[in-house]
Protein 1
Amino acid sequence: MFGPELFAFLDQLARNNRREWFQANRSRFEEDVRAPVLRFIEAFAPRLHRISDRFVADSRPSGGSMFRIHRDTRFSRDKSPYKTWVAVQFRHVQGRDVHAPGFYLHIQPRNTFAGAGLWHPDRTVLAQVREAIADTPDRWRHAVGGRTFRARFERTGDALKRVPRGFPADHPAADELRRKDFIALTRFDDDELFATTFLTSLAGRFRLAVPMMQFLTNAMALPW
């Protein structure tokens, strides 16, 4: 599905992150990066639906599962116009943006990883998830505590220094209630990305995150 020419383009873009260079090499981007990523999204859709048919694999070139290569530089000191990676999100069918619960794939030379969960949710959603964890801490611990899940995934994201207001400081899930993100990442070597088995490997990793994803969607009153 993916070939070394994808990484060759991204490595060269990292060294030539200018609009003039990108325009001169746009055909390479379309042929070596966008086209194989869109084919991948289309091919992955049946596997995703076997995990849950509530998550969307949209292979449209614009407005679909693949993120734009252009960076939003409005509030950044780094004014480089292009991302030097490729990002794909398979978000919940009722999700409107990147903050929806979803599965994620980040493709970058020497830094390819996949993820699952809920990133930077708004206050309402964050409160829903925290309430669900506070009410059923054992269920949440079970969802993120499986041996194989912990061996493959690293839980990460922003967190508060103290337990948020409204929850006791000595709550048994105090460390979980401090979280502002509920995400987990799993890494792939470059050779794994280029292997013919990558579709199957990625689906297998996502299945390990199903208990966590089910907990989050249930907390948000979304269908699984």
Note: Residues 4-219 form a domain with the BirA Bifunctional Protein; domain 2 fold (CATH 3.30.930.20).
Protein 2
Amino acid sequence: MKKSTDSIEQLSNLVDTGDPKAVLREVKIIVSSIYPEFNYLLFDRVFFDIVRLFKGEYEGFRKCTTEYHDLRHTMGTLLTLARLLHGSFKNDVRINEKYVFLGLVSALMHDTGYIQSNDDRLGTGAKYMREHVIRSLLYMEKYFSKNGFSLADFNFCRKCITTTEINANINAIDFAAHEEEVAGKMLGTSDLLSQMADRNYLEKLLFLYYEFREGSILGYESELDLLKKTLALYTSTMERITVDMGNYNKYMADHFRERWNIDKDLYSTAIEKNITYLKFILETHEKDYRSYLRRGNVVNTLYRENEARTGL
């Protein structure tokens, strides 16, 4: 059922990505509108295993310790991919049911490389930032071997997840078929869109700075420096989406028109709002920027973490 647009023309009001069950319900609504007979049996198993993994309820692994690359982000990427697939199908850019399934599984698996094993007690999963994609693939390979996936399934998902590596040369990925390429580029697009359109994106950039620092990602001297450089990163990221990733985001408005009777791309709207507000902060409140980043209790969390580190 389509809802009134009076209260939902803000992306974050449609589905709470902090609620995995709400995300799962919406993904099923979207996918079933494409494939009414879609078999969710194995997908449900993977979905709840990944939720358990991030929550620290999966045998052998710690709870997710990264505040930026967290379960909410994985749920956001999954939901964004489902929406993008739907919008693309409305424009006759279609992939078969098996590839839709594997694409969604890839979204669930793409950041598992940040999760630490139970005996890994040093620091957080952010220390694996440089190799997190490789670690995600290793986790997926073991999981697939235990849960009835084929080697072909793994190779498909491997290529999809590789698109989420920020420095990956998309044109060098050995896609075996056009449908494979479409699914991979849609996942890479969804990973980026879900981050930048998050209502708490600017606040979570503060977490990202500390993940970069722990992961030895150079080029950012402080939280403020990362915020300043985000403006240039936004431009290069949108170019990557439109050029390297195939510009599939142009179909997102068709999803919202069909699903919600909203004639606009709410991702573009949310991203533009975030960037506009970031410019406002940097232009008028650079010295007290934290005071203008109030969502998600991020700043208070950082203060508590700093107190724990310093003992103050």
Note: Residues 11-310 form a domain with the Catalytic domain of cyclic nucleotide phosphodiesterase 4b2b fold (CATH 1.10.1300).
Protein 3
Amino acid sequence: MSQTQFVEYRQRGFWAYDVALGVFLKHLIDVAEGHRLEHDETWLADSVKWWRVVACVNDFGLGLGEEWSASQVDTFVRLAREACVRIGRRQQFPAAEIEAWSILDGKGVFPRGASEVRSGPIVELGEAIVALIEGVLPAAPSGTAWLYGTPEGRGTIAMRATGE
């Protein structure tokens, strides 16, 4: 079972540690649900359904808004930034808490043996998602891909050249 999930937007992306991505998505879902109470947006309801799956089942990556309009992209960016602010209000999340969240059919985030998950790398992951969508995420060093959300923070992973 992989500990990473690919985050992609319009053929660009990076890898994310699944625990951090799950915690980020839980907060993004909370913010999006609050937004949906004021705005009837079908695209957002559909997105939230998928984010719930990605947060709890690491067999999938997070594909973002290939078909989103400019206003939908703007809404997503606002929601993601608010999720980062909320996450950043805490130093860490105890494993028991993230496991107890009811994100998908009563399931929470699997902490992979950690007793707690620090918020700093999760905020960094959320900011990288925003940068990816805004087109300002820097390219990873040659032969590597970015990896966000690990307990140590951003890193890289080696990528094999096509055809190897």
Note: Residues 4-158 form one domain.
Protein 4
Amino acid sequence: MAAPARRPEPSRRSPDTAAIIVAGGKGLRFGAPIRKQYMQLQGRPVLWWSLQAFQKSPSIQSIILVVPVDDVKRLSRRMRAWGLSKLSAIVAGGVTRAHSVREGLKALTKSVSWVAVHDAVRPLVQPELIEQTLRQARRWGAAIAAAPSKDTVKLSNGNGCIASTPPRKTVWLAQTPQIFERRLLEKAHHQGRHLPATDDAQLVERMGVRVRLVQPSFENIKVTVPSDLAMAKIILKDR
């Protein structure tokens, strides 16, 4: 598939974008199996902060929350107290992240033209980043938040030795949100449903589509290990 041409700057639009918040992780890198999305961060579960950011984003029409199958009923009751008017569905995820995203795609309404995929355990995302990434997605068809690497990156040969060193200026670290034209993302997931992928952009890249990089602030961290949670608490306190 040929890379899309750059699109004209979009005019003011009514909300036509849905967010799929993926909250199905097991937290194995946290030191023990733990659902990090429910850990407390300044008195609220980690996933609450991600949901609030998309709730406040003016371009977001609806939010689909994807959680482990055992948590669907419990969270459905709890969400009523959170007053999330844009939350339209809570669905059960799958075995892999890609499977969970596909379950979220099935829950979208026909009026949705653009889809933002976000990891629930990246709780410090702000509406400004969501809107900035969406603007770039509208112009290019696909855009993701990503940070340029501050370190020199080494590629391994698989046996504990260096295979090569890519130029540091070409290395970016993928984050979320990742935003795509709906038809493009659905097609990418259909074509790549049997292929391994660690994020949605990888599936879209395989179709020959150029994905635009949007640099976030340093605060858009992912809660992966205990020190990340401690850092998130410090950042929120400073805010």
Note: Residues 17-238 form a domain with the Spore Coat Polysaccharide Biosynthesis Protein SpsA; Chain A fold (CATH 3.90.550.10).
